[in-house]
Specification:
Helices cover 0% and strands 46% of the residues. By secondary structure, the chain is mainly β. The strands form four sheets. It has a four-stranded antiparallel β-sheet, with no helix packed on it. It starts with 14 loop residues before the first strand and ends in an 8-residue tail after the last strand.
Length: 174
Amino acid sequence: AKDGLLDPNGQPLGVACVEAMPDGEVWLGAGAGVFRCDGEQIQWMEKFAAIGQGSNLHRSADGTVWIAGRDGRWKYDGRQLAKVVERPSVAVVSSDAQGKVWFGARGQGGGVWRYHPATGETRIFTVEDGLPHNTVKQIFQTRDGYIWVGTQQGLARFDGLTFTLFTTHNTPSL
């Protein structure tokens, strides 16, 4: 990366995710932490140093920034950074229309973790609950309310009660 972006240690930045903020800035989750870009400069956000590697960022409807890092799950409300759940290897974070936050983990103890910020309640979904694999790559809610989960071994749709797997047997185009 001769002309690429470098982190504060002089290493390639390695951007894992990009999240647009309401003020026009773009935040980056990268191997060396969380950065912000105002369109002209990229700056390391030192206040997020405790997070370490920021593998994924998500801004929920209430403005909270959720960060899935190597050492757990964090939230930033615009004033304070707080660790929500101790959990290594969080790969992805998303939120739904009801305000719940969804974390996708990988490796041992992986799966989908649904967190309710108002109550602190966490529900973990794994292959035992119908996921195709416990290494989660993506989580997204569609307008019709379904939660879609992309895993290392396929796709599942959650209707609030059960997961529907999409396979070559039930999806003709595969």
